[in-house]
Structure prediction request, 969 residues.
Amino acid sequence: MTSPKSGTSSTENVTQLDRVTIRFAGDSGDGMQLTGSQFTATTALFGNDVSTLPDFPAEIRAPAGSLPGVSGFQISFSSGDIHTPGDRPDVLVAMNPAALKVNLGDLVPGGGIIVNTDAFNDINLRKAGYVADPLHDGSLKGYNLFEIPMSTLVARACDGLGLSSKQVELTKNFFALGVMFWLYERSMAATEKWIAEKFAGKDAIAEANKRALNAGYAFGETTEIFHTHYRVPAAKLKPGTYRNITGNEATALGFVTAAKLAERDLFLASYPITPASDILHQLSGYKHLGIKTVQSEDEIAAIGAAVGAAYGGAMGMTTTSGPGMALKAEMLGLAVMVELPLVVVDVQRAGPSTGMPTKTEQGDLLMSMFGRNSDSPIPVIAPATPVECFTMAIEAWRIALKHMTPVVYLSDAFLATGAEPWKIPQISEMPSIAVKNAPESQGGFRPYQRDPETLARPWAVPGTKGLEHRIGGLEKLDELGTVSYDPDNHHRMMLLRAEKVARVARDIPKTEVWGDPTGDLLILGWGSTYGSIRSAVERLRERGKRVSHAHLRYLNPLPDDLGEILRGFQRVLLPELNLGQLRMLLRAKYLVDIVGFNLVRGKPFQIGEIEAKAESLLGESVEVGR
Amino acid sequence: MTQSELPVLTKKDFESDQDVRWCPGCGDYSILAQTQKTMPDFGVPKEKIVFISGIGCSGRLPYYMNTFGFHTIHGRAATIATGLKGARPDLMVWVITGDGDALSIGGNHLIHAMRRNVDMKMIMFNNRIYGLTKGQASPTSPIGKKTKSTPMGTIETPIIPLNLVAAAEASFIARSVDTHSEHLQEMMHRAGEHTGAAFLEVLQNCNIFNDGAWRDFTDKSVKEDRMLVLKHGEPMIFGAEKNKGIRLNGLQPEVVTIGENGVSVADLWVHDETDPDASRTQILSRMWWPDFPVPVGVFRRVPRPTHDQLLVEQVESAKAARAAKGPVDLQKLLAAGETWTVS
Ligand SMILES: Cc1ncc(C[n+]2csc(CCOP(=O)(O)OP(=O)(O)O)c2C)c(N)n1
Ligand code: SF4
Ligand SMILES: [Mg+2]
Prediction:
């Protein structure tokens, strides 16, 4: 575990730590996501800064005990400010041999392993591909191994409740959670409350889970197997009221808030797809706020309905992931042509094609930018952290409404499912993003007469007297909006559409450079790589390196100050979870020789990987200097 | 303004200033004229009427209507109508589509708009060909049809549009013919009066790429004998001499002659638009020349809650349920679940 501060206290054997990373791993039927999120909730309530990374198989239930069926949940928590769920776990909770096998390689040398020995039987060992039992063949010598017969112990704890042995076995994740609560000095109260609510009316099940939790806790306390427990003091977060939130939750709440700030109805049409579906689920539950949702027949229908709603004056939007985004291309082009406000959320996942549905990637940037016929400009923005999904969702709508344009909001699987503490903002303090519809007219209405500042056209909503007009995908005559095949008009309209989107750059914040404004190396990022990059830059700067971090939230148009920032550094490194998409755009636009760092393994970057890459570049630039 | 105070509109009020650009002689002219003539019937102000179309020759119609109009993309008009009507239940929404637009590229959306009962009036111009793209086979082209894309004849069984929408639970189903202007006008009127998803198939002549596609039975000289004009509550009688009828023998319709073999009017199938069982609508939709007269008229008209009504109902009932627990506070929603305070 990282940097013990004060050694073991003699009386109660407590070791103080700054930061701990734990991974819960088991069969997808073992409830590891639940265990992880319960541990997260309690840890956040305790006041640590936390960051999480769920990692689950795409199959709902891969064969029990198999390697593909392993589900994991990593949480990092700290007494300081953290940005990532941790590179490598300090402690691994492995509920079966497959979980051990899949996750052992990530564990830090000397890390702790807590196993359910009852699951280490011949069948499970064979399913995991073990020839010999790793608990006994000495292969785990370099680790701190804690062997606990969890199934046996929960069976004992639940004796007399009249439940089947299968039902009792299902509670062993709560036993493991109890052990971890004891080990890290956490209270069981929040989880006990959760159990009571979740299993209300199923008294025996509730009791069994509660007993399993308590048995785990008591096991930590009374047995001699752990020599110490660990204290990670509360972090010094800014004053305020906090909750824990995932990126998808923050996105959904951001849209609800945007509707309030815009004083318009929100209309979501969506087709289910991992990892975006939770936004649909959440917004579908907000009917009492006046939000209408439709589960469409496919992604084309979803964006079609959103365009229809936008045409009618509502905040029409759709949510999807890569494969669905690909289907929306033609309708996005129509939205560009008819210049209606629209927000399209793409929660990116590993591709191409179906790819790895539950794994993260930043592969849809170029598709969002260019994946339509002809020159068809659309603003593209991307939140950097789960918490930031809230503000960027509002930002997406602010831009769409003010500039009368579709906007693509690029999240990803890591942001969507990762969680961190969120300082709950005050809606009353947020600026309005409301825009007006075109007023009634006595005649002579021009549907493409533009705002001189933004070039936005009027929002001419059906039902408004005197505004009867026809729009569509055919090229428009400038200002009048009738169909036109005039060559010069087409050229002008192409330029106007491009200029309208380019002018969004006047309306976005300056790029923040963290560190110094000039130096040896700028690490530039976008989207969910924020945490890993920031942590790496923190470490490099601690070692006196002249390294800074800039993170783009606005990918189209790019901020006006970016070119100058890039030129202020000897080298620019751009880590991306793709094969170099933003790098291609920036090199083309700024003629700066940006170095890429591209890993596409379906996982976020580790801090150490970025650090090492930066170190090697810094080494090179010294060579160049000589 | 209440509806009765509305100025009375005429066909002229619904004509836009755009030049109509279909081929001379195209059946679409008549459909446009009947559409413009019918619009004043509903007492709906122009600005509350929206025409949404897909792509195809048919898709140009909204440009000629002096209402709100949205010429969208190929096959997807129904999706846009679904969103528009969902967001704005106060509008009257018409969808204009073609046989390729609705049944080929837009087939999926057609089915779902019908089953959802989106309150829109969809008029499908069926010319059994792709007109705009200059003459390829469509999903309604008869098997063996030689077109530019099927020089040896199509090898695909055509879709029977009304059979399809009946299977998709459409709440209003009708058929008419471009040149039978009075009947067409009546059908447009009936579709417009219906609340819910209305599907009106118009047998339309594309005189350039598929001339005479329906002539065998729609022509003035033969239509009495070869078409059956459906009338609600009346026995199915046809023929120039009004002596032919349809008898339903189990699931099998039969053409009979009144007065022969002891058949009387009382034996005939009495048309019931409101028949809740769509399978009889399907039987009717499958009747085709030369085995049967081709039915036109309203096949089906059943009341069913519309998609937009149900959307609003859910929102209203969620609001009411919520209001019982105190005012809705978005700030509180942000703070849902476990929270903690750092001071
Ligand atoms: C995505 C897409 N694919 C193809 C086309 C080309 N296209 C335009 S209309 C049409 C067929 C139209 O046939 P139909 O719906 O029967 O209309 P009609 O012209 O006969 O009225 C096709 C293939 C298109 N506009 N968009
Ligand atoms: S191609 Fe056929 S359907 Fe199209 S306008 Fe000409 S005649 Fe009418
Ligand atoms: Mg056609």
The longest helix of chain B spans residues 307-323.
